[in-house]
From TrEMBL:
<dbReference type="Pfam" id="PF13668">
    <property type="entry name" value="Ferritin_2"/>
</dbReference>
<feature type="region of interest" description="Disordered">
    <location>
        <begin position="227"/>
        <end position="270"/>
    </location>
</feature>
<protein>
    <recommendedName>
        <fullName>Ferritin-like domain-containing protein</fullName>
    </recommendedName>
</protein>
<feature type="signal peptide">
    <location>
        <begin position="1"/>
        <end position="18"/>
    </location>
</feature>
<keyword id="KW-0732">Signal</keyword>
<feature type="compositionally biased region" description="Low complexity">
    <location>
        <begin position="227"/>
        <end position="264"/>
    </location>
</feature>
C-alpha cells in the first residue's frame, strides 16, 4: 500500500510539473508577436545584405579613419543573421506561426555617411520596437529572444552613435531607453520608432496582452493602468526636479508608447 501511495504521489507531482512546463511554453497567442519580431529582424538583416560593405564606400563617412566601418558593419550584419536564425528556432515551437511574406524597402543611402546614419536609425528603432514587444507575450522563451535581440540592437546603435555624436548619453535625460508598442511601430512617418514604411503590410500588430491595453511610459510599462505607466522620474539626487513627463495623448496603446523629451531623443539620434 505504501508503494502505491508513493507512486501515486510521484505521478501527481509529474503531472503538475508537466502542466507547469506546458503553461510556460509558447502558445498560439505568441504567433503574432513572433511574426512581428521576425519581420523586424529580417528587415535589419536585409538592410546590411543590400549594400556591399567595403571600406571604399565608407571612406567619406564621419570618423572613417578610425571607425573601421566596413569590418564592424560586417560583424553587425553577422549578428543580424544570427538574430534571424534565433527567431526561426523560437518560431518552430510556436503553434500557428507562419513566416511573413514581406517585400521590404530600405532607406536610400547614396554615400557611406548616409548609410551609417540610416544604420543608426534602423538599429535604434529595432531596439525600441523589440523592447516594446516584450510586453506582448507571457512565454519566457519568446520574451527572452525579444529582450536579447533588443539588447543586441542597442549595442549596435550605441557603437554607431559614438561614431556620429560627441554626447550619446545626455545627463538630463528623463527616460530610459525608448520603447514603442507595435501599432505605433507599424505606422509610417519620420518619427523615431516608425518602421511601417520599410516593413509594408506584411505583419499586423500583436493583440494587447491579457485583454487590456499595454501602456509604456518613460520608466515602466503597465497592463491597463495608464496612470502607473505615466509616472516619470522623481527629484534628482541634487534636489532639483528632473524633466517631467506629461501623460499626454501620446501615452496610448495605439500611438507612441512613450513620448521622449528632447533630451531623451538625443540618445542614438543621428
Amino acid at each position: 500500500m505504501r508503494f502505491f501511495s508513493v507512486l501515486n504521489g510521484l505521478l501527481l507531482a509529474g503531472s503538475a510539473v508537466a502542466q507547469s512546463s506546458g503553461s510556460c511554453s509558447p502558445q498560439s497567442s505568441d504567433a503574432e508577436v513572433v511574426e512581428y519580431a521576425w519581420a523586424i529582424q529580417s528587415l535589419l538583416e536585409g538592410f546590411y545584405s543590400n549594400q556591399p560593405l567595403n571600406q571604399t564606400f565608407f571612406s567619406g563617412a564621419t570618423n572613417s579613419s578610425r571607425a573601421e566601418y566596413a569590418q564592424n558593419l560586417r560583424g553587425i550584419q553577422r549578428q543580424n543573421r544570427l538574430g534571424v536564425r534565433a527567431i526561426q528556432q523560437v518560431a518552430s515551437k510556436v503553434p500557428g506561426f507562419s513566416s511573413p511574406s514581406c517585400s521590404f524597402s530600405f532607406p536610400s543611402s547614396s554615400s557611406g555617411e548616409e548609410y551609417v546614419k540610416n544604420a543608426l536609425r534602423l538599429e535604434s528603432d529595432a531596439s525600441s520596437a523589440l523592447l516594446g514587444a516584450t510586453g506582448y507575450t507571457q512565454s519566457p522563451e519568446v520574451s527572452f529572444i525579444l529582450a536579447r535581440l533588443a539588447a543586441q540592437h542597442t549595442a549596435d546603435a550605441t557603437w554607431l552613435a559614438t561614431q556620429q555624436s560627441g554626447v550619446v548619453f545626455p545627463s538630463n535625460s528623463s527616460s530610459l531607453l525608448p520603447a514603442y508598442n507595435p501599432q505605433y511601430v507599424l505606422g509610417t512617418g519620420d518619427q523615431p520608432g516608425r518602421l511601417g514604411q520599410f516593413l509594408g503590410d506584411c505583419v499586423t500588430a500583436p493583440s494587447s496582452p491579457c485583454g487590456q491595453p499595454f501602456f509604456i511610459g518613460p520608466l515602466v510599462g503597465s497592463v491597463g493602468n495608464r496612470s502607473s505607466a505615466a509616472l516619470g522620474p522623481g527629484p534628482s539626487s541634487s534636489g532639483s526636479a528632473s524633466a517631467s513627463f506629461s501623460p499626454s495623448a501620446s501615452l496610448s496603446p495605439t500611438s507612441a508608447a512613450v513620448s521622449p523629451t528632447a533630451a531623451a531623443k538625443r540618445l542614438f539620434s543621428s
